Amino acid sequence: MKILTKDWVIGESLNFQDYLKVGGYKALRKVLKKMKSTEVVAELKKSKLQGRGGAGFSLGSKWEIVATKKCDQKYFICNLDESEPGNFKDKSLGENSPHQILEGMIIGAYAVGASKAFLYINGTFAMAGQKIEQAIEDCYQNNLLGKNILASKFDLELEIFYGAGAYICGEESALINSLEGKRGEPRLKPPYPCDSGLFRKPTVVNNAETLANVAWIIENGAVEFAKIGKPDSPGTKLFSVDGAVERPGLYELTMDNTIEQIIRTAGGVKEGFEIQFIQVGGSSGRIVPRFLLSEIPSYSRGAVIPIGSGAILAVSANEDLKKILLSWINFFQRESCGKCVPCREGTFRLKSIIERLVSGDFDQNDRQDLHKLIWTLDNTTFCPLGKFSVVALKDVIRYKMIKEF
Ligand SMILES: Cc1cc2nc3c(=O)[nH]c(=O)nc-3n(C[C@H](O)[C@H](O)[C@H](O)COP(=O)(O)O)c2cc1C
Ligand code: SF4
Questions:
Q1: Residue 11 falls within a domain, yes or no?
Q2: 97, 107, 178, 278: which has the fewest C-beta neighbours closer than 10 Å?
Q3: Whether 214 and 331 share a structural domain
Q4: Are 335 and 167 in contact (CB under 8 A)?
Q5: If we measure between CA atoms, which residue out of 120, 89, 107 comes closest to residue 44?
Q6: 343 pocket-lining for ligand 2 (C-beta < 6 Å)
């Protein structure tokens, strides 16, 4: 069962004509000719589509909040920042099927009453950026963007915006600051972007993969979508699978697959290798030891393994866990935006401790400091990046994977 990649051809990108041939923009046509904006929101809500950017928030509920605001200007933003190591699903969507994302954005903007939309892309994604720019141009030329779209009363201006590739700019409020030309630092929440977002106006921020599902749901109906996968986490998911597997790559699977099944789809564990653990969700993801491989990662509350962005890293028993820990903390220390002390100083201190662990100089003082720092990063930072920096480390301690801890 495929929704997002069903028309992809490996090595090729679906251009405007290709996209029309596989039924592209039919959903938009249906929306503009036959559906009121409230009906679009209700349909998406019924589908139970959850955001694929990590947190799994209901798309329908988010759209409803913005749609019900009475206001002169609203904004619609697609988040294609994807700067966390191990993730390459949104970039692949942008490269292979840019119109699928744009169609979701245009439908979304209509549903919530936004007349201005931005696609925020990681500035290092040159090929995806090029494909998206061409797709936007094709939309303007074919009356799918601009004034009176498809002869309706709906107008929408849509622009691509290149970020500088900072991880924090994937966080929605930092992304909005960056779009406004400010430093890419998160804002205090609440207010959330739905209430006060870009230029303090009600704003939807949705992940690129989330939006790529929208046209399918409009065409096939929310009921059909809700039947796929699991009732509390419906649909399919793009998994970026990497590491010690036979065929690393991007896989679209229904949301009822266990981690073991996902690994099997990628050709299974690489011959001659043994799995040490799987990490689900990128560098900020949970560690899955071998005895938990039969778990289904999901967006459900209280899920044993949260699915996050869907990155799956298979780490072989040959890898040195201490060096992996160092590479994780190195990433978070480098990407800490510096706005709050616990994260700016905490990730720096943690990195020094892990460096001593790698060089064999770790002592009892380091052990005590390590536990204090984990608590600080987990509980006191301004935004979730600080918390993210210790998710995997906490699992390493939980599963007693390093004797010095
Ligand atoms: C540090 C950090 C980085 C994030 N990076 C991304 C990202 O690259 N792409 C993304 O879609 N969401 C990212 N998010 C989540 C966004 O803040 C936001 O929840 C998401 O774009 C909402 O879209 P969705 O509801 O469709 O998932 C990040 C969050 C945090 C805290
Ligand atoms: S937790 Fe880190 S990334 Fe978030 S505001 Fe503080 S310094 Fe910046």
A1: no
A2: 178
A3: no
A4: yes
A5: 107
A6: yes
Domain boundary among 190, 211, 227: 227
Range of the domain at 296: 232-316
Measured from the alpha carbon of residue 382, the closest ligand is: 2
DSSP sequence for 79-121: EE---STT--HHHHHHHH-HHHHHHHHHHHHHHHT-SEEEEEE
Q: Is the CB of 172 under 6 A from ligand 1?
A: yes
Tens digit of each residue's pLDDT (9 = 90 or more) over 332-386: 999 999 999 999 999 999 999 999 999 999 999 999 999 999 999 999 999 999 9
Token reading at 279: 């990490």
State if residue 381 touches ligand 2 by the CB under 6 angstroms criterion.
Answer: yes
Kindly state whether residues 331 and 199 are assigned to the same domain: no
ω into residue 85 within 30 of 0, thus cis?
Answer: no
Question: How far is ligand 2, taken at its centre, from the CA of residue 383, in Å?
Answer: 5
Between CA 155 and CA 146 the distance in angstroms is 6
Residue from 102, 183, 107 nearest 137 by CA: 102
Residue where one domain finishes, among candidates 266, 289, 316: 316
Tell me whether residue 365 is in a domain. Answer: yes
